[in-house]
Amino acid sequence: MYLWIKALHLISVVTWFAALFYLPRLFVYHAMAEDQVSRERFKVMERKLYRGIMTPSMIAVLVLGGWLLYLNPGLMKMGWMHAKLALVFLLIGYHHVCLAFMKKFARDANSKSHVFYRWFNEAPVLILIAVICLAVVKPF
């Protein structure tokens, strides 16, 4: 059963990261939109992505990851796991910052440029690289 839970956990990680990569990209295009029809379309796309994919994926990652730790508590004695969990908490924070930006767009109160969102979009890439390296290499 452990391997099935692990497989579902990895599937959830992939879907969460896909959404974390795509939502800020929508912010880039939304910040560049010049007509109201486009802005309204981006609001709908952002809301559906956040509520329908991103948040359920995050919840699945956390529940399944917690279940894996429950089944294998020895993992909590390893330094790489502590570092990985710290990065997961950063990612949860990033997830919620995305919500704050989405709410600003929904109110037509965005004050950031498309360039800001292009840079903002790079943060989950760095976290993904670090998490994969920690989980595969287990350096400490």
Give a brief rundown of this model.
84% of the residues lie in helices and 0% in strands. With 140 residues, the chain is mainly alpha-helical.
Structure description:
The chain is mostly helical and 140 residues long. It has one domain (2-137). The chain has helices at residues 2-32, 36-71, 79-106, 114-120, 123-137. α1 packs antiparallel against α2 (36-71), α1 packs parallel to α3 and α2 packs antiparallel against α3 (79-106). The two termini are 27 Å apart.
Helix and strand topology:
Layout: H1 2-32, H2 36-71, H3 79-106, H4 114-120, H5 123-137
Class per helix and strand makeup: mainly alpha
DSSP strand tally? 0
Structurally, the number of domains stands at: 1
Describe the sheet with the most strands: none
Overall shape: it is elongated
- What string gives the helices and strands in order? HHHHH
Distance between the termini: 27 Å
Our count of helices gives: 5
Mean pLDDT: 97
Beta-strand content: under 5%
Q: Give the % helix.
A: over 70%
Radius of gyration: 17 Å
Low-confidence stretches: none
Pick out its properties.
mainly alpha
